[in-house]
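Listing S7. Sequence submitted for prediction.
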Amino acid sequence: MYQMPVHFGPCCGPRQGPDGRRFTADGPQESTQHILVYETDPVAVERYLPEGFALRRPYVTVTHKMHRNLPWLAGRGYNVVAFHVPVTYHGREETIRGQYQLAIWENHADPILCGREQLGYSKVFAEIEDMRAFHGTMSASLFSWGFRFLELRFDTAAPPEDPEKLRSILLDPENEGLMHYKYIPRTGENFCSADTAYVTLTPKEFPPPPAAASLPSPERSWCAGSLTWRLPSWQDMPTQYHIVQGLAAMPIRQFLGASVVHMKHYNDVFHQRIVQ
């Protein structure tokens, strides 16, 4: 596996260590996820779906993840905030039902670079706070160039607003995985054509690594949640203002609720593939 600069040799990353092997033999990683779901206007979502995608249900899932004890980072961790919508993708040879990733922020360059280049994730950078607890509420904010553009809140003492719909979205039996649109621009030619443009899939089901120890079941709880946008101008977020404005333009018709999940897992996204 190589990433720029290639002249120093093969890269180290989530899917390859300094000895050329995967890190799965070093044990699982830990993740704490705070997941929020809300109903929105389907027309507002569909304007951002690439060709071949159709919205299955008008709900947005927002996930704040704290990845910790990562073997590929020698025990370090980082934070993630991602936005997904349930879709069906009709490719040339395949039809996939799953979630489409609209945007994903991370707070460290290393997972952003390998995630964009190897996996086709639409990753960008933001400062992402750890979840903090105060008076029964968990909350975290996202910042870019010092501008706070998003705040997430989870009321762990309150029940979900619509528990049935919430479970149907988060435990969707039709979900085959998470889809992304990988786009790499071609150098020159006004930078307006693509070297690469295709859909990739993070499968929901993947084989366990060889000789992997059994892991405890994820710990899940249900609660209420909400979010607040602060709309940026170009001056506030020069390279990302349009992303925030687009997401915030999807109206929140109803918060369905939230879930908090703590898990250990071996998923190094090694089985990422192109959708044909």
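Caption to Listing S7: primary sequence and predicted structure tokens for the chain studied. Residues 124 and 239 are 10 Å apart (CA to CA). The chain has a mean pLDDT of 96.
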